[in-house]
Amino acid sequence: MSELNFLKMYADAAALRIDVLVNRLDCNTALERALHDYLENFLAQFITYTREALAAERRFILNTDPAKVAELDEDFGNHRENYEYYWREPKGSDLWDHVPCEMKEFRLLLDRIERKLGIPIDAIGLELPQQEYPTSAPSSVEHDPDDIDEECYEDLHGYDEGEEFSAIYVFVNGDDCDSKP
């Protein structure tokens, strides 16, 4: 296993987190804000992890009790393994899959994070806002509100109790509707 520099990772993660927070100021949509918030939270968790690893390293280096050497080495070794087998492993859903191509600056941030910290950014737990769609499109056909059939029977079945086939039914099924179903 290569020697990990947790102090450099801590400094890089802190600088990248500041970049994410500054970049968030330019967000215009709820999607952009949600992605920035998720990434900021991810980096905050990584910063907490590196602080714990630095504390374990410090305890190991400053230890003067020979009886605690094995325990402190194991604790520090667990942090190194945690980086290798938890932080560096892809966990399924990738954050890149949720970032629109138009968010170029955010994509550059993701790339810098993956290069500098050596960790992929998953999208586990990412909650994206619902996209807003218009509730109804304006009608392209003018209609008379008094001409609406309340029961809509003839539109569904083609005829309304003894009358001829409706225009909608004829349009959908053709003019060869000689007999009622």
From TrEMBL:
<protein>
    <submittedName>
        <fullName>Uncharacterized protein</fullName>
    </submittedName>
</protein>
